[in-house]
Amino acid sequence: MADNLGFHRDRHGRVRYGPWRGGPDPLAAPFDVRSAMDELGHDVLNSGNIGDALRDLQHRGTDGRGGLDRLAERIRRMREQARRRGNLGGTLDQVRAALDQAMAAEKEALAGDDSMDARFAEMELDTVPDDVAGAVRALESYQWRSPEARQTYESIKEMLQQQVLDSQFQGLQQALSNPDPDAMQRVKDMMADLNELLAAHARNEDTDEQFRDFMDKHGEFFPDDPQNVEELIDSLARQQAAAERMLNSLSPDQRRQLGQLVSDALRDADLAAEMARLQDNLRALRPGLDRQSPTGMPNQGDGEGLGYSDAVSAVADLADLEALEAQLGQRHPGATLDDVDVDSLERHLGREAAEDFAQLRDLERELERQGYLRRGDDGLRLTPKAVRRLGETALRRVFAELEARGTGDHQDRRTGSADEPTGLTRPWVFGDELPIDVPRTVGNALRRRAASGQSLAAGRAQERPGSGRMLEVDDFEVTETERRTSAAVALCVDLSFSMFADGRWGPMKQTALALSHLVETRFRQDALEIIGFNLLGRRMSAVELAEAEPEWVQGTNLQHALMLASRHLRRHPDAEPVVMVVTDGEPTAHLTETGEPIFHWPTTPEAVRATVSQVDELARYGATLNTFMLGEDEGLARFVDAIARRCGGRVFTPDIGRLGEYVVADYLRTRSRGSRG
Cβ(426)–Cβ(479) under 8 Å? Predict the structure, then answer.
């Protein structure tokens, strides 16, 4: 019986395992870490800052998944839609419509009354202010003749009171719609208990038990079901800040009128006091919330007019989107992906977006876990494993380019006594120091005896001491090996700021890492030294070069670099000496007799003489010195041509995209020629 779980049972009940057929591999990594490391490495080599490179990778995404920028763009579009949800001045429009309805009903009732009181009432209605808030306040003491008009007017205050409270407590609408006179008292009791809870929390008291008692007693008013005091405060502060932003987004006249209406709606002294206390508590507990900036939403016009509660809810949703967009943007100092509200992200963009974000957030942790990054006191750093990966990738790219053009041959094909077997054997000759191929030697002996009609056992039984031998000299075969010569290689790379400014920084480092990986993995008998130089030269490991950031340092001190190269070559006197120089400018710095660096631009005869002196020393030592000239500097061209003639080296002028190809190919070609010599 087969299923999709990667195993099946045969008719005897035995389990047989096979390939997984139930969809995507549940044990597969959420993303290709090596591919992510390659992308990360490209940015690191161009900028040198692993933190910036990781942030850039997280923003653009990896492994076919969108990054933070794509998520932020989706949130931005939703924010623009939220701003067009309706106009915030709808509350005033609703109150104005209700007032007009009440006054029309009242005037209709007065028109059918011929008494003087009716005429005086009509005159009183004619003096009602034009603004909505003033009209509501002026009519508060008016003696309504029409029961319909009185009910409509009273509904205005009830509507405002309900909407103001519902905007702060989402579960109050149902409670306040209940005609039970005790409903408002329950609301006031809840607010009193809430303020006591928030005050205790502000005093850093343990409020866990108090919170549980509060929710048991008043949980009906909080449908979002907060799990602790912090979640409760977040929810309430969000609504309160949205209400203040909504008011600040109105025109001054609208803000004055709506403020007056709200104040009149909360005439209950106890209710008003608890609301004011709640606002103070929330401001103290969440002081960083945006309560002032305009929302950009319209406050009048033909769009749908939003009531007070709906307007506050719309502003709160807009604030969530704005906060989420800022969190995904990661532009404020000290921002991390832990700042992003994943629940809010999933609520607005769905589960798939939240999962993509979680994988981006875990990328750094996964790179650390697999040994590509490490975190120290100075932040994230590349590990040797990461640099080997970068070198391997760069070398693979170089070989892909070289494949169609042919490569130099590093190896000496003469057979010898060291290094790797070729897989071939040959008869042993006097003086050979090669390893004996035992299977071939014994096989030769067996075939020789079989050809003579004598088995090995029979021959052994018939042999008398000294009468014969099981193995003859002609039976012996030896294993051929490839003898390789060793080389001492100094790669001098220009670290002056012009290399970065002209887009040569990344290719230069990729080239050095590719050569380093080639030597480390295939030609381990060679000794490679990477030497960086600007105002001074310095020896560098592959990791140091990969993490090197551009420095605003003036000077191209090739003399010092060649001096360090000469020391490296002399530490390996039996190796073939090879020096490679990658630069984009003629020497503009050199060391004085006291060892101090001196810079001057344009170059001076002293700098040229000091550099040529080191070239001559390398030539006398027998080193091969080849230069890879980047750019079209005429002064550099004349200089490198002169030193090439002086030391018998060569000059290459590769396009920057083919620098690695040129350097690796020349290394292989130089080594091959040296081996054959």
Answer: no
pTM given for the model? 0.62
Burial of 516 (C-beta count, 10 Å sphere; 0-12/13-18/19+): buried
Please give the structure tokens belonging to residue 203.
């005093």
How many CA atoms lie less than 13 Å away from 556 in the CB half-sphere? 22
Gap between the terminal Cα atoms of the chain: 69
CA nearest to 626, candidates 641, 638, 606: 641
Residues found in the chain: 677
What is the DSSP code string of 643-669? HHHHHT--EE---GGGHHHHHHHHHHH
Cβ distance 517 to 397 under 8 Å?
Answer: no
Rounded (5°) CA angle 605-607-608: 65
- What's the CA gap between 260 and 250, in Å, rounded? 14
- If we measure between CA atoms, which residue out of 307, 262, 253 comes closest to residue 88? 307
Phi-psi region of 43 (alpha: psi -120 to 50; beta: other; left: phi over 0): alpha
Q: Which tokens belong to 230?
A: 């912090």
- Give the separation between CA 650 and CA 578, rounded to whole angstroms: 12
Q: How far apart are CA 262 and CA 519, in angstroms?
A: 79
Cβ contact 208:218 at 8 Å: no
**pLDDT tens digits along 30-41:** 567 888 888 887
Give per-residue pLDDT as tens, 88-142.
777 788 888 888 898 899 888 888 888 888 888 888 888 888 888 888 888 888 8
The residue behind tokens 């070609």 is 669
Helix (H) or strand (E) holding 78: helix 68-83
Write down the H helix ranges in 330-421: 342-349, 351-369, 384-403
